[in-house]
Amino acid sequence: MRLSIEIGRIMGIPIRLHITLLLVLPLFAYIFSTNEEFGFAGVPSESLRYLLSFTATIAIFISILLHELSHSVVALRKGLEVKSITLFLFGGLASIEDIPKNPAFEFKMALHGPLASLGIGLVLIAIHYGLLKVLGESMYNFFEIVGIINIVLFIFNMIPAFPMDGGRVLRAWLASRMSYIEATKKAVAIGQVLAVAMGIFGLLGYNPWLVLIAFFIYIGASEEGKATEMTVPLEGVRVSDLMTRDVITVPSSMSVSELVDLMLEKKHMGYPVVEDHELVGVVTFTDVQKIPHERRDEFKVRDIMTRNIISVQTDDPAEIALRLLFTHNIGHVLVMNKNHLVGIVSRTDVLRAAQILGS
Predict the structure, then answer these.
(1) I need a surface site. Which of 51, 76, 339, 349 has the fewest CB within 10 A?
(2) pLDDT score of 317 more than 50
(3) Is 30 or 118 the better-scoring residue by pLDDT?
């Protein structure tokens, strides 16, 4: 099941809605419609009340989209590829490939999103007070409500903890004074302390949302620390530097029982599959396990192999191979030179290299 749907493109960037957002949109609109102090419960017309509530909800997520587009514009100007922007329950995420570990650039890109939220908030609040002065009303405080929420988003995103932008701003500032890894460790530690304090405050105040956000921040900080410790040592390392060139392939016509015998002999749990000298798939022990022992002579490798080939090119950065291995939760990734299979890289190969180079 796909967890997000593409609704269009802006500047060539696919814009996606995560299923969590689709589920909470009606909930957010309902909250606005029933809240009198910070919503539209006081609007006498029921249809207008729900229209304002739904429009405010949409306006907030458009604001989040503009926040992420601000990050993306900086990346595009740097020549980086923005894979997509996804809007989900807790906000938005711009998927940007190969962000350089440059403190000045990271500081600039991280800061652009929150500044966009602050700018939107200030403009909407100015519109609200302008309408009050001229007309004596401001659409039941619509602009004020959406404006205040954008300013809250600015403040929230500037919390100096990963995965918020404030965590990246903090790391960029620290990285201008120490190594990137040390800066990340300090930023992660600060973020985790803040998360623990936030969680305790949420528990004491019986605020489950604050506890959930604290958990989200703590896990995000931990993951950022682990990812940086693995990827920074791999800078300048190419896939060709790590790959095993002696690749054992199996024909698609091989029986599954023969494949099991080969696995026992060679001690490898996965193999590229070839047919007429062309790569057509990959077969692993997980695929073999789907076939009962007594029927493995009846099935061929072509019947159980995976045709979705995940590969990298020889001159790709090792970080790309690492990302693919973890994103797809696989043990090996094939290495191609254009359309020809020339090697294979395992998760162990990449992690060992990161450990050695980082020591």
Answers:
(1) 339
(2) yes
(3) 118
Are 157 and 71 in contact, with CB atoms under 8 Å apart?
no
Over 70: is that where the pLDDT of 359 sits? Answer: no
Q: Three-state secondary structure along the chain?
A: CCCEEEEEEECCEEEEEEHHHHHHHHHHHHHHHHCCCCCCCCCCCHHHHHHHHHHHHHHHHHHHHHHHHHHHHHHHHCCCCEEEEEEECCEEEEEECCCCCCHHHHHHHHHHHHHHHHHHHHHHHHHHHHHHHHHCCCHHHHHHHHHHHHHHHHHHHCCCCCCCHHHHHHHHHHHCCCCHHHHHHHHHHHHHHHHHHHHHHHHHCCCHHHHHHHHHHHHHHHHHHHHHHHHHHHCCCEHHHHCECCCCCEECCCEHHHHHHHHHHHCCCEEEEEECCEEEEEEEHHHHCCCCHHHCCCCEHHHHCECCCCEEECCCEHHHHHHHHHHCCCCEEEEEECCEEEEEEEHHHHHHHHHHHHC
Which segments of the chain belong to CATH 3.10.580.10?
239-358
CATH code of domain 239-358: 3.10.580.10
The whole-number pLDDT of residue 89 equals 65
Over residues 58-69, the mean pLDDT reads 91
pTM for the full predicted model: 0.72
Q: How would residue 324 be classed by pLDDT, with cut points 50, 70 and 90?
A: confident
**Structure-block tokens of residue 154:** 């600015």
Parallel, antiparallel, or unpaired for β 311-313 and 278-284?
unpaired
CA 142 – CA 295 distance, rounded (Å) = 67
Q: How far is 166 from 155, CA to CA, in rounded Å?
A: 9
pLDDT category, 36, cuts 50, 70, 90? confident
274/172 Cα distance (integer angstroms): 47
Q: Which active-site residues does the annotation give?
A: 68
